[in-house]
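Table S7 (text form). Paired inputs.
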Amino acid sequence: MRIKRGKFAELDGATVFALARLRQQVFVVEQACAYPDLDDYDLDPETVHFWVEGDTPTEAVACLRVLRNGDAWKIGRVCTALPARGTGLSAKVFGAAMDFLGPEAEVTLGAQTYAAGFYRRFGFTEEGEEYDEDGIMHIEMRRPRA
């Protein structure tokens, strides 16, 4: 499986559909969070989407997005399709995003608390207190510049 990346303006309709469907399945259906997943950050010219295509162009099995957050970068919407979990695919996609950003970039994210250990593997540390976002506990995490 090849990791792909692109800004929104570079994505074709099938890819946008695949990313939206995966995010909807994980965040809205599985996690039972009715919230507007698609937002203006997806369209921002600096936002870069990373994904792994499934068996067809309208299927994504893992994805995330990287967006500008002031002087830092923020990674969000990290998700993997249920059948692909536990295969190491999430780590590959996340690693590709971190390679893209490089060691000099300060990177933040709002981790679901249960996943904090995953992000620690990439040099992130927790900051502040846990908080409830849409009924799911989160914690802010940061990887400082090298």
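Next pair, protein 2 of 2.
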Amino acid sequence: MNEYKPLFDAIEELKERAREGWVIIVEGIKDVESLRNLGVNGKIIIFSGFASTADIVKDRDSIIMTDYDSRGMEIERGLVRALQSYGKTPDTRIKRKIFSNVNKEISKVEELHSFILKIQLGKNSK
């Protein structure tokens, strides 16, 4: 369980930022459900294009939580550029902390809740 402490810390940081009013940007509805199931409250929006998404969050602090695959990284790069044009730099660090601590077992945000459950169930069975 200790090996996953950085993962749980990153998820707690995500929850805390959401409580503080940061907007979380994800790729789809299953990502929203996964984060909600993990207890992430606050505003979560689904990516709808670089300009339109940036326009929605331009006045807020934001966290990009796209998948850790080629499409998710492409969306992240485009969103960072779009938001920087408004003078905002979104947080991508939390996403990196989360996905660097899942031992390459998952790469999608929608898989995060079930991955955490699996870890917690494994811990309880020992």
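The mean pLDDT is 95.
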